[in-house]
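Usage

Read records sequentially. Each one opens with the input sequence:
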Amino acid sequence: MEIDGACHCGEITFTAEIDPSRVMICNCTDCQIQSGGAFRMVVLAPVESFQLQGQPRRYVKVSESGNRRAQMFCPTCATPLFACAPEHPTSVSIRLGCVKQRGELVPPRRYGSVPPCPGLRSCKPSPAVPSRKHCFRPRAAPACSPGDRSWIPKFCERFRHP
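and closes with the structure output:
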């Protein structure tokens, strides 16, 4: 599957060929801290299929296991974009938040040794607020009008627990 994405300000863009079965959620402590949430969603892509336009900034972190990973992000808006081995990478771990096709990609697996945030299972959906200016939609989609909630059931179905 061909994907494309960009940082929030548009300074960095990319394309990649991915296998949708390689989408995953990680809830390790590093991913929680770096995503600012309970988990991070990523998809792996071979480095030869990854095309990057722009010059991201790089931060090399050392995980609890001792592995080094280069975390790449936009120097202007700080959007996390991808991670890879600092030297001679064979694959990139693309952050799904900046992928335009993220709504089509469902994670089949979860990684991480930290239990998921205990409050997520009992978290109830918040009622929509009609006065909001923006809706959660990929940037490629047309802007939604206030009160348009037609996308919510399809989006929420992906996170329903049995």
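Summary fields computed downstream for this record:
- The domain at 2-111 is CATH 2.170.150.70 (Metal Binding Protein, Guanine Nucleotide Exchange Factor; Chain A).
- The longest strand covers residues 40-46.
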